[in-house]
Design brief:
Largest sheet: 9 strands, mixed
Number of helices: 30
Length: 877
């Protein structure tokens, strides 16, 4: 616990002098302790991604079908399925590899540098070459390269938001901390790797590097946390099992039926292969990949980078978004929003963050400008349109000065007393128009102690008005800064003792403002049935104030602090889960507590998305069902997340949720189309065997229909637009099967209707028209192509009429129908293709009759939708 030790004791323990390490000693320590780096996840190679695609359950199912086809001597069928599998795997590999490269491109390509004392001289080295005992020299704007213990400092403040989540910059000094177990936020003499110096200068000694740093511990936790399966992965796994069992069950029944009839073994095997081909949705893996690829591409246009293809649908399934506050719901830029004068006059300030655009409204603007000018005089920040450097409050005062045209060109600064955390104020002595003044800014209590008078109020009548104003601003979540000014005697040097008899001028309230789009985005999430939580390291009052502005919470009872989370956790899981369920805002929480909150939500059956940008968010991003990192966030956060929001815009998440739901809806439409057609094929196949008729279609014909006709239309269905009200539906249970009650009914009805129609036509062709089996199969093949090309219009919506879904929203469907029918005519008319597919030309009048028959299932399904999907039972969908 270095924070409890004196600097002399630390220098002695780490065997370091005030001149720093020698180059030779630094080299030895580097070899002994290793580089100051964190272990990075090795990016997946293209080959590793390619072979991982073979683990997909649907692909495994198709591999079995390939083996069976070759075993039965159906070489062409086997080659055709191999082609389908390879196209699917190559597309999936390309998309995931592309997403990984996009994510990697967001990382900084420049190596971090740091200044150290070596051999008594200040030199610049790579941060990774730092070692224990090095003396680091820091100034405003520097990124802290390791965990350091301060030796000396001057006006030092640090932005620790990436580690703690707190937006307020922390004042640091070398003073010893006597506490036995101080939290990170209490270690004011220690600097942590990854945080940034906002003001001042310092010299500090390296006490921890690499994995031993606070960031390193978080990185280590991430490496030990297992990845979550996406909802689609779980659903596809379940779907694959269901299809496998279905194929196996029907195959056993057909085998028994044919064996009882005395059919030879080879014929039985060929029949079972044909049946498997008909029941197996060969195009499904490719269709799923296409639907997800389209969704991920649409998300990219909305500034959402999907790192794993199946995560594209996951966001649409989330039931809870646990969001970081700083930088996600707020802009992470302190902004002056209120000015209060002692006489009760108040001013409202518009504008957000460090943007100069904004107005001040209220009473006498001259008085407001006077307050702003004092804040600009007593200031170390550098603020231009190109760059912003300095303490966030100083920067905010500079921005306020710009809004009120504060002019300090004619002022001459004489002496500065910098801000120190123990003093809680800063002061500037300056000269204006030949007179000498002092201005002070800081906490109300300290600034008031320097004052004799209160501006705009008669002596003795203040009646604690300032305390009431301060309390009101604090309760509303503002950080309050008091300002005072007064004339002083002119002299050569000034000290704190010269600050007296000042006039109290007023209070300024600052807040890290909410993102303008966050409020409407949260409202959309609520409409979509998604619960939004805020998890932050900030003060509970500040967090609650932000939550109220966002309409995220109404009562303070919905806020929980880190200490309350710990107390509830000690009571056991059941009690802890009940506690978490009642809360919407979690303030002053540590990374470990954030993890426990996410785990609790998952135990309650929620599918949790966690957003964040800091190192402190990374463990929760990893543990969550889906982690969403901000593009401007830390490397660790981006590498851990499933997807990255490039523009840091909470609204992009809502757009991502919509596209995720569209992807899932389109996947269901594709499954409805493919499985209902497959069921129809199994139906007429089984009916034919049951009545001792030949198979209506052979394996190669079934494969043509399933791959070419189905393949074109399931591809087109991937491009369907969002249906009305998609963001008003409740999120689906991630454990729910794709085959829910409504989908099973619709598949069964449409499959039975098509199957019965085709079987009836097959009986008519053979028993009434007495057609040759080969010619009759050509008719059935053409009929199935027509039916499927019309049936695709039914599948464009599970519950809406096909005539209410405009063709203009997806012209690919129309083009798919045209291409598919043209291809079918070509294979019938070109002799070698007709021979290959065992078909023959069909007269135009007969084709017209077959097309007329193909319309019947569409009419039947329109009646079914009208009856089945009334307002009451639409919830089944």
């Amino acid at each position: 616990m270095y924070y409890r030790k004196t600097t002399e004791a630390i220098l002695k323990e780490l065997e370091t002098g005030k001149a720093g390490l020698s180059s030779e000693e630094a080299k030895k320590r580097l070899q002994k302790y290793g580089k100051n780096t964190l272990p990075k996840k090795k990016p997946k190679s293209v080959f590793k991604i390619f072979f991982s695609e073979f683990k997909d359950p649907m692909v495994i199912l198709l591999l079995v079908a390939i083996a069976a086809s070759f075993f039965a001597g159906e070489i062409i069928d086997g080659i055709a399925i191999i082609f389908i599998v390879l196209v699917d795997i190559i597309m999936g590999t390309y998309q995931e590899n592309k997403a990984n490269h996009t994510a990697e491109a967001l990382a900084s390509l420049v190596k971090a540098k740091t200044k150290v004392l070596r051999n008594g001289e200040v030199v610049s080295i790579d941060a990774e070459d730092l070692t224990l005992g090095d003396l680091v020299v820091l100034e405003s704007g520097d990124k802290i390269p390791a965990d350091l213990r301060l030796i000396e400092s001057h006006n030092l403040t640090v932005d620790e938001s990436i580690l703690t989540g707190e937006s307020v910059h922390v004042a640091k000094n070398p003073a010893i901390i006597e506490k036995d177990s101080a939290q990170i936020t209490e270690q004011t003499n220690t600097l942590f790797s990854g945080t940034t110096v906002t003001t001042g200068r310092a010299k500090a000694i390296v006490i921890k590097i690499g994995l031993d740093t606070e960031i390193g511990k978080i990185a280590d936790t991430l490496n030990k946390t297992e990845d979550e399966k996406s909802p689609l992965t779980l659903r596809v796994e379940k779907l694959s099992k269901q299809i496998s069992l279905l194929v196996l069950g029907v195959a056993i029944i057909i085998t028994i039926l044919l064996a009882v009839k005395g059919t030879d073994t080879h014929t039985i095997f060929l029949s079972v292969i044909a049946l498997a081909v008909s029941a197996m949705p060969e195009g499904l893996p490719l269709a799923l990949t296409m639907a997800l690829t389209i969704a991920s591409n649409k998300m990219a246009k909305e500034n959402v980078i999907v790192r794993k293809l199946k995560s594209a649908e996951s966001l649409g399934s989330c039931t809870v978004i646990a969001s970081d506050k700083t930088g996600t719901l707020t802009v992470n830029e302190q902004t002056a929003k209120k000015i209060l004068l002692p006489n009760g006059d108040s001013y409202d300030i518009s504008g957000t963050g460090f943007d100069f655009n904004g107005k001040v409204t209220g009473g006498n603007l001259k008085l407001a400008a006077e307050i702003a000018t004092l804040g600009v005089i007593n200031n170390k920040a550098v603020v231009t349109e190109e760059k912003t450097v300095g303490d966030s409050i100083d920067v905010a005062f500079k921005v306020l000065g710009k809004k009120l045209n504060a002019d300090i060109k004619n002022l001459k600064t004489l002496e500065t007393i910098p801000y120190e955390s123990e003093n809680k104020f800063s002061a500037v002595f300056y000269e204006e128009n030949g007179k000498t003044y002092c201005t002070v800014k800081g906490s109300l209590e300290v600034v008031k102690s320097f004052c004799k008078n209160i501006n705009l109020i008669s002596a003795g009548t203040e009646s604690k008005i300032l305390e009431k104003q301060n309390e009101k601003l604090a309760k509303d979540g503002y950080r309050v800064i008091a300002l005072a000014r007064g004339a002083v005697e002119k002299k050569k040097n000034y000290t704190v003792s010269d600050i007296k008899k000042l006039t109290f001028m007023g209070l300024v309230g600052f807040i890290d403002p909410i993102r303008e789009e966050a409020k409407s985005s949260i409202a959309e999430c609520k409409t979509a049935g998604i619960k939004v939580l805020m998890i932050t390291g900030d003060h509970p009052l500040t967090a609650f104030s932000i939550a109220k502005d966002l309409k995220l919470a109404k009562n303070y009872d919905e806020v929980a602090t880190g200490n309350e989370v710990d107390a509830a956790f000690k009571k056991g899981e059941e009690s802890f889960d009940k506690f978490i369920k009642k809360k919407l805002i979690f303030a002053r929480v540590t990374p470990h507590q954030k993890l426990e909150i996410v785990e609790s939500l998952k135990r309650q059956g929620e599918f949790v998305a966690v957003t964040g940008d800091g190192v402190n968010d990374a463990p929760a991003l990893k543990t969550a069902n889906i982690g969403i990192a901000m593009g401007s966030g830390t490397d660790i956060a981006r590498e851990t997340a499933d997807m990255i929001i490039i523009d840091d815009n909470f609204r992009s998440i809502v757009a991502g949720i919509k596209e995720g739901r569209v992807a899932y809806a389109n996947i269901r439409k594709i499954i409805l189309f493919l499985i209902s057609c497959g069921l129809a094929e199994v139906t007429f196949f089984c009916f034919a065997i049951a009545v001792d008729l030949p198979m209506p279609l052979v394996a190669i014909q079934l494969l043509w229909i399933n791959v070419v006709t189905d393949g074109i239309q399931d591809f087109a269905l991937s491009f369907e637009k969002a249906e009305p009200g998609i963001l008003k539906e409740k999120p689906r249970n991630p454990k729910e099967s794709i085959f829910n009650k409504a989908l099973i009914k619709e598949i069964a009805v449409s499959g039975a209707i098509i199957g019965a129609l085709v079987f009836g036509t097959w009986v008519f062709l053979l028993n009434v028209l007495k057609l040759d089996v080969g010619i009759a199969r050509g008719y059935i093949m053409a009929l199935m192509v027509f039916i499927q090309n019309i049936h695709v219009f039914t599948c464009r919506s599970e519950h809406r009429s096909a005539f209410k879904v405009p063709i203009s929203s997806n012209w690919l469907i129309a083009w798919g129908v045209i291409v598919s029918i043209i291809l079918q005519i070509i294979v019938m008319e070109v002799p070698f293709l007709a021979q290959f597919l065992q078909t023959a030309p069909i007269p135009f009048t007969d084709l017209a009759i077959l097309f007329g028959l193909a319309i019947l299932p569409l009419i039947a399904m329109e009646i079914y939708k009208k009856v089945a999907f009334t307002p009451k039972n639409k919830e089944e969908i």
